User: Fold these one by one.
Assistant:
Number 1:
Amino acid sequence: MNPIGVGMLVFENVRHAWLWGLLIAGGVAFLLHTYTAIFRRSERRLTWSLMVLRGAGLLALLLALAKPTWTRDAAIIEPGHLGVILDDSASMSLRDPTGKTRYERARELVQRLIPDVEGRPGP
């Protein structure tokens, strides 16, 4: 398990590492065999440089296919947010038996709830 805060390199598309290792070993063997035959025919030292360049290109392609990702577990606690929407329609202007409008009563309720939501003592 990865301790919190410590990064780790993960290859997302590598499910079976042994299969990737086998394919890479086979590719390296094929590349060496092919370029050895080319060197025997041409006897030019440039052959080995070309083999290294081709191998680097193939390695870059395999790396892209393996999809490397740097992951890190972090305990980040975000504060919660609460949104209150008050209706401002004509029905909210109706008065109750105390003479206050529905809108005024809703605002008072929100004002009373704010200390409870924020976790501090009210007025």
Note: Residues 20 and 26 are 10 Å apart (CA to CA).
Number 2:
Amino acid sequence: MKIDPQEWLVKRARLDRVVGRGIITLLMWHHDIGLPEDESVRLRGRPLDYLRRLWQFFSPYRGQIVRAGVLLLVSSGLGLLGPVLLKRAIDVNIAAGERGLAGLALTSLLYLLVQAGAIAAGYFQSVWLAQAGELGAADLKFRLLRHLLDLPVSFFDRMPVGRLISRVESDTEALKMLFARTTVTLVQAGLMILGMSVVMAITNWRLYLLVLVLMPPFAIAFWIFQQKVRPVYLAVRKTVAETNSLVAESLRALPVIGAFCQEERFARRMDELNRQKFRQEVRAAGMWSILWALVDFGDVICTGLVVAVGGIMALQGRLTIGTLFLFVSYIARLFGPLRMISDQINVLQRGLASAERSFELLDQPVEPGG
């Protein structure tokens, strides 16, 4: 049977395309581009265990950490002192009329010094923690890369390059932020809430009871709504991971993709992921805007009620104007820490998930004799 060379070439080209699509499909399936379980923030172990293991990378820089911790206490204390000085300026110095001019000047000077001290303490605290965070993350990154070099070749057949890049680079950066920012934010917010509560309770416990009753409902509503927002941000994170892995695996398989004319297919997949991320980001931004509007609404309601009740008490002579000003100032600062705590709890979860993935990589058995 005589075969037409032109017909044979056409059939061979079609066969190559079919085989090429099969190879690309197998490649994409084998390397698990979606990464759904790798990007999960549900921990399988205990958070305390991960924090203990993580501490070994940051403990060499404990001197900077201790100094930063001392400055954290100083900046928090000075931040609480500002409204107290303004209360004194109103109730004592201004109320004394012309006789209080010298005292008002002294109180104003103290206020400026206190604020300057809080700013300076916050600056050096941030610098020292950032240094310790960078050095600790660099040590962890070096350990991960050094461990990768000792792993058997079979491990790299199971683990795609995109995922390894994410664990060495992105996860270590998340851990740096967990150590240098999230932990500090949570501690500082807790100190500020506790300190403001103590000052308000000592200054006027009746008005503080009103604040104490108003805060929990808004805090609970904020927490519940944030749980609705969290899955949206998790979906964005998964899409970003999928995009990164697609780019990494596409570059790795570039000769095969070019040989079988699959560029358009990968371009369409990238376009789909970009459009998907756009829709998720828009939805997340809308929900986050509602969340902050809820916080602002709580701030307004709480301030309005405190002004109304405190104003009545002031008219009856049971409360000074300076005390009312102190409460209003603290309420404005009170919702900020609550917002930061709720926001950073999700960051804490993601950071612990990054720690889990990093330690899973470090726990992989090395090549015998490596």
Note: The CA atoms of residues 133 and 176 lie 5 Å apart.
Number 3:
Amino acid sequence: MLAALLQTLDTTIVNVALPTIQGNLGATIDEGTFVVTAYVIAAVIIIPITPWLQMRLGRKRYFLISIAGFTLASVLCGIAGSIDELILFRIVQGLFGGGLLATAQAILRDTFPPEELGLSQAIYTLGAVVGPSAGPTLGGILTDNVSWNWVFDVNVVPGIVAFVVLAFTLRDPGQAKRTPLDGIGLALLAVAVGSAQYVLDEGERADWFGSSLIFGLTVAAIACGIAFSLWETRGTTMPIVDLRLLRFRSVAVGSLIAMINAALVFGQLLIIPQFYDQLHYPATQIGELIALRALPIAILTIPIAIFANKLDPRMLICGGLAVAGAGSVGLGLQTTSDANLLTAAPWLVLTGFGISFVFVPLLTAVLGAVPRADSPKAGAFVALALQLGGSVCSALLVTFLDRRADFHRAVLSGNITDGSTAVQSYFDAHGTVQQLAGIVNGQAGTQAYADAFVLLGAFAVLASPVAFLLAKPAKALA
């Protein structure tokens, strides 16, 4: 989990450092954003084929290669002298890091006895959920107090420690098998997932289908996605991604729930830093605020795992999503231009409390529904669902924020007329038109962020009953 934590941290740790990176490397906003996008695209391509790579190379060898490659790529990112170099090294980092989380999950699944499945997945959850939440905190502290380079250099020592310890202690469950490479499936998957991820990350900035590139990549993603599904299920006997695993209801429904949970987790991670940066809070304080949401997850994950086998996981997941959603709605209702860290703190703690009851029961339900040999494949589906859920939600939120800000700006501007007493008083106090426009824009943006928090929360609450589509657990019914 020390190795896997590196990958989850790096999905979010760079976000708060982007303005500094752009300034130091002379990059535009779009170029800076692609530092994040490039990493995510590379990781998303690798995640589905991780089970095949484990089989082809051997799990231990693949894990060690991934750790070493990720650590070396982190060093290269830290010494990058231009934005182009940094983007290239981030692609390399994503290619090596994409499989760390799913491989760690498979190792934990096979190391613990069946009766301790919940405990093994609780340890996994500490990396999968706490990692992304801790990323902005650590990134803010390093950026404010050292330099942006350290958001990458921080991976070096943990990476070396993980590699050395695992090289001497990790057991390999089986020998590597010379499994043929499904080259057609790999090519279709890379184009479909890579194109879709680029469209999601860059669509709003490129005016969506107003851009010929975005339109072309959308067509490519849909066409290659359909072709990939047909090829993997009918065209080959050795698929690189075993889509047949989706016949297990808990795998299909569990992946959907993982996307719903990721929408809330990563959606808040996107908009909280943006909103409080607009209020001129330093990166360190914003990171500390996000850490409040991760605190109950870190505290409750292991205790929940101990008692999870005695309860119906569907009840825990449904209740957890509903509570987490309520926390996000409350956060939205408290989001004003006078908001501060104290007004947000209790709602973020409530959100974290709810999330604590989702992930461990979900993983236990999914992995417990498939044969042990198929657990790496099931884990890869859940890991991919987490990544895609966060990406889809982030893309939709960027568009939503722009649209709602335009709406609130139009409403507020419509109430500002020459005959308004308040407007006349403002100008009498030597206010200017430009200053008034700035106030209107600020209020419109604040109300858009409030709407986004409410939307995320309402979605989680309304989607929570999906948990009851999971297969009934035998232990919970006994």
Note: The chain has a mean pLDDT of 85.
